[in-house]
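Running this now, will post back.
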Amino acid sequence: FFESDAGHVLTVIGDPKQAIYRFRGADVHTYLRARGEILKKGGALVKLGKNFRSTAAVIDGYNAVFDPATGFFRAGAGIDYDQPEACGRPNRRLCRAGGRPAPGVVVLDVQPAGDTTPVAATRRALRRQMVEEVRRLLSDEGALFVQDGDSLNRIAARNIFVLAFTHTECDEIGEALRAAGIHFAFYKEDELFQTSQAKD
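Update: finished.
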């Protein structure tokens, strides 16, 4: 595209925050290199300012987390968040039974037991909180609904995803969910039919 004289147009869409999907091949360094090359060759950077997938409460939550004042992105990393997102579907909202509003973001917090808390203990505590949160969401008392205009859909188990960095973390979270009697599946596990469970 850079070397062609035929007037081809190249449009590249990317989001460095999507590097959380590293397990699906996302690579923030590749994104940053590609963006840099395109801009060097005279390409224009166009920021998309509206999100049509999330509720306004979720967007407000991550606008607060990614605000430059928080220092979420390291200085000099090439990732900025100088233009907060806006909600493209203001009629979509998360609510509890009876239409009561629900928060867009819930933060799980672990308080240290002393001056230092081992990493393993912190992970166990977070897993316990995560399991309790999933159990609550699946209960009638803690049920959440997505209201979009006139439609109202309850959040089900298939709508809940837990992201983890490693296979070990996935296994540990799976064990915690299994111990709590919560059914789950590993999403797109590599070579699923070659696992010992499938063979059994």
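The longest strand covers residues 92-96. More later if anyone needs it.
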